[in-house]
Amino acid sequence: MLTIDVISVQPQMLRGFLEESIVARAVKKGACEIRIRNLRDYAHDRWRKVDDKPYGGGPGMLMMCAPWFEAVEDCTKDSPSEGRRIIMTSPAGRRFDQRMAEELSHERHIVFMCGHYEGFDARIRTLATDEVSIGDYVMTGGEIAAAAMADAVVRLLPGVLGGGAAATANESFGRGGMLEAPQYTHPPVFRGMAVPEILLSGDHARIEAWRKAESCRLTESVRPDLAARPCAANETTRS
Ligand code: ADE
Question: By the 8 A CB rule, do 141 and 10 touch?
């Protein structure tokens, strides 16, 4: 079973999300365990201080080493390093994507270290196996990044979504890294907008071919960076 630890100075922010979502359902179903830890519980003074001014000057405050080392050591004391990832959230990290979510869903223990203030004392980086960003923008803290990554990982765990592996097989990025074809449900015509005929035809081979083509078309128009390789590969299999 996957254990996820999240270490943060704003644990209440994570509780709101992780305790009332698919993630919470996954915990109830026994697919994973989530432990939210307050970094301030590892502070060394009665003000529960976890940050200090940077040496050499500069704006803002940096997170201090001792609370982080002790919090991470506490989370990892009973888990072997094999199958364990310690992820520092940072806008300067490797970009999180579906492939990484899949990779993480096979691990046994993930620790998310949520950054804050102007950043971490550089020595804290030595604790992490990965430094990860959820996108090219800067947020005030790593909580939303950790919650987003935990959600993307947990929904891939066996038994979490109804429909099993099929529930995640055809969605965006699941099919050769492309966006999902448009989907429709009842009614067949709504305010003059009709469901494409082919989806009502019952011809599964043609529907599948239509979905592939739509998926290619959409990806090429919205995310050409994703489309280049898979669509080119599609062309060669067609010819
Ligand atoms: N902390 C602040 N911005 C972030 C981002 N884009 N990804 C991960 N952690 C962050």
Answer: yes
Ligand 1 pocket check for 139: Cβ under 6 Å: yes
How far lies 231's CA from each of 61, 102, 196, in Å? 47, 22, 22
Task: With CA atoms as reference, report the closest residue to 131 among 117, 118, 146, 151.
Answer: 146
Q: Does the Cβ of 39 fall within 6 Å of ligand 1?
A: no
Q: Which of 138, 135, 131 is nearest to 116 (CA)?
A: 138
User: Per-residue pLDDT tens for 154-205?
Assistant: 999 999 998 777 777 767 776 678 999 999 999 999 999 999 999 999 999 9
| Residue 12, C-beta contacts closer than 8 angstroms, at least 6 positions apart | none
Q: Whose CA is nearest to atom 2 of ligand 1?
A: 139
Domains of the chain by start residue, with CATH: 2-154 (3.40.1280.10), 170-222 (1.10.1270.20)
Among 8, 87, 90, say which to mutate for ligand 1: greatest number of ligand atoms within 8 Å of CB. 90
- Determine whether the shortest distance from the Cβ of 55 to ligand 1 is under 6 A: no
Contact assessment for residue 180 and residue 170, using Cβ atoms and an 8 Å cutoff: yes
**Residue 162 Cα to ligand 1 middle (Å):** 31
On whether the CB atoms of residues 58 and 185 are closer than 8 A, the answer is: no
Q: What is the CA radius of gyration of the chain?
A: 22
Q: Which residues pair with 28 in a beta bridge?
A: none
pTM over 0.85: yes
User: What 3-state DSSP class applies to 211?
Assistant: helix
Query: What gap in Å lies between CA 184 and CA 186, rounded to an integer?
Result: 7
